[in-house]
Structure formats: C-alpha cells, structure tokens
Amino acid sequence: MLSELMSADTCAQCKYCCSFKSTSLWELPTFPAEAVKKLAKDTDAKFSIEKDGKYSFARPDLSGEYLSANPAEEVPCPFLDTDTGCSLSETDKPFDCKLWPLRVMRREDHLLLTMSIACPSIMTWELEQLRSYAQEKLRKPVREYVDKHPYIVKDMMPGYVALIEI
C-alpha cells in the first residue's frame, strides 16, 4: 500500500515494526476473524480472539513467548522470517501491516491517519509530501476499510503525528 513511499527491501532489512515489547502489544496487527481460520490451519501461529462490540478480530498471541519480565524484551511477530521479512502473502497480510508506519487513530471525535515517528524510512519524507500522498492515495481506501473493520482504530498515542483526517 505504501510501495511508492518505501521499498520492500528497506522494510525487510529494518523489521522494527515486526517485533513487540510486552508494553507495546496494543501495536500488534489485527486480523479479521475469518482470516484467522485460514492462518490457524496453514501456520503454527496462535491467536487471541477479541470482541469490539459486534466485531470479532484476532491478534497474534505472544503471551507465552517472552523469556523474562523485562519490559524492554522484544518478541518477533510469528510471521516474521528474519531472512526475508514477512512470510504472509499480500492477501493474508493484515491491513495494519500493509499500512504501517501509518495508523488510523482516534483523537476525541476525529479519525486521523497518523504516522509513527519510530519508522526510520518514513522519516526521510517531508511532512507535507506525506500529507499530500495520504490525502490523494490513501484517504478513500483507508476510510472504506475502517468502515468495514472499525476495530483497527486505535486511540491517539504519543509518538504519532496526525497527517490527515479521514
């Protein structure tokens, strides 16, 4: 989804977004419940099923993967191949991952497309270029996805910059 902004090779080398501290589990990608059925058959990944109103969704369950109580310890996504990057097909990859380092976040009554300042690749772009790209290329498809899958919306967090309202 962001191939015009970042190369797959750059992302595969970094992998920052594919490992999680126990304090950042809110960042885990969300999968539609129907996708979990397929992935549970095809992989060894475990999922945590959650409900948000009438919607069911799942996140990878990393709870048994941490070796210590150290909050700085990171655990990789179960779909991360350390040599090649994400092992999921483009069809199976969750929308959160396709959109990273952008996130849909809520601030008060506003839905915003935001950018993580933690991604080294996205930080090479000028903010106004990113805003223009988001408005022209991403606003409509992101809004359509959010309307069908509202559970991907996260509350506004520190470390994110609002790009556009969707």
Annotation, overall tally of beta strands: 11
| Biggest sheet: strand arrangement | 10-8-9-11
Please estimate the helix content.
25-40%
**What is the average per-residue confidence, as pLDDT, rounded to a whole number?**
88
- The number of helical segments is 4
**How large a portion of the residues is in β-strands, by DSSP E?**
25-35%
Computed structural class: alpha+beta
Overall geometric form: globular
What brief labels describe this structure?
globular, single chain, 4 helices, three-stranded antiparallel β-sheet, four-stranded mixed β-sheet, 166 residues, 11 strands, alpha+beta
Describe the structure.
The chain has 166 residues and is of the alpha+beta class. The protein has one domain. 27% of the residues lie in helices and 27% in strands. It is built from 4 helices and 11 strands; from the N terminus they run αββαβββββαββαββ.
